[in-house]
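so i finally got all the pieces together for this one. its two components total, 451 residues if u count the protein bits. some of the lines might not be protein, just check the labels. i wanna see the whole assembly predicted at once instead of chain by chain like last time, that was a mess tbh
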Amino acid sequence: MPRRAIAAIATTALALALLFSFKTPAGSASALGLPGQVAVAPAASTDPGSAGNGPAATTPAPTRGGTRPTPRPSVQAAAPTPVAAKGSGTFTGSVVQNPFGEVEVQVTMSGGKVTDVTALQLPTHGRSGFISQAVAPILQGEAMSAQSANIDIVSGATYTSEAYAQSLQSALDQTHG
Amino acid sequence: MADARTGQRPRIVATMGTVIGIDVRDPDVPETAVADAVAWLTDVDARFSPYRAGSEISRLARGEIGADDCAPDVRFVLTRCEALRLESDGFFDIRGAGLIGGLDPSGFVKGWSVEEAAFILEAAGARNYAINAGGDVILRGEPEPEGQAGRPWVVGVRHPLEADQIVARLAFAASTDRRAVATSGQYERGEHIVDPHTGRAPNELLSMTVVGPSLALADAYATTAFAMGRAGLTWLAERRGYGGYAIDKDLRPSWNELVEPLLAAARVAVGPAA
């Protein structure tokens, strides 16, 4: 299959995927090694897609701080703009409508590979109760090393006092001290 | 991270079976405040630990004293734990044959007592601090109040299988609100969490991280939602102000909507991982 065709397929697939996913900002596409995310409705909810922008009757009470909904995967895809020769460049997909508002994504490709996907426009209103899930698991070696992650503090299952010496938090405490 | 903070070094204390780090970033908070917080935590360990034969909890479990004989804060903890048992449909339960002494309120006591320690720091003027109790965190303000002002606290969530990696970063913008991050999992201390409905260790998740305003509740909710497995995030969505970030046994992350802005803020605040 010609490379161009592969690139076009990849771009379309990403545009499809982005109807229900959005990525990290440009340059951080693999910051967490998370290739995207999908929204799944909570078990207690009836079909949220049918509720439009209004709250579903069975949606749990709103939670504080969650203002940006994750688009649901039940929307038709819009074809992205044409793919450049050799599958390189930045492409902006069409604005698509989903139950929460308009979504527009930008796909960056290099040498036929998707290197970044950025959400240019996301709905700003929504409901609580939605759960986002990464499309793929975090593969071994994909996660951030603590040294490069620029974190102040580590949350994790409670270590024993003996295990603290080998913990990330111990390393951070020594750095900060 | 190299930073320009001017406060004292973090105080590290081994208590409650783990290590607690008290990190006050205000330059003018007296060291006595940190010492008072450490003394409080040590006292709580002595009175509440089911691993100490002389603790009030152990004596209560053996029937040597009744609940009315216990200190007011012991009675408070027992009352709160019973409320959590009801709220969680029995998933959070401090009583059971599988627990040490048959009575182990540690799943609430650590978060609660560390939150109280934060109040001690605040009474002495602390406004910018973080306490990490073995992986359960309470924080306020900002990490560099006099240096890179406005920088948020950034909390890394540990990879459940690889001890030197993190799987997510949560950024908390400078605020006068206290924020808590608590994580439950079996990867540090073995299968110490039991689903009281099955009597077995929960196996759907590798870790559950809960964020919210109170560490006492975030800690208890993390234990609860971990035991619930995949249903835990849905349960958390009904707890106003609280959200979760779960890693399932296939290493697939999922999270509540409330967590999404924290993940996004971390990407903005500190950029991509190098």
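The longest helix of chain B spans residues 31-48.
Strands of chain B lie at 11-15, 18-24, 129-133, 136-140, 153-158, 165-172, 179-185, 205-212, 243-248, 253-256.
anyway lmk what u think
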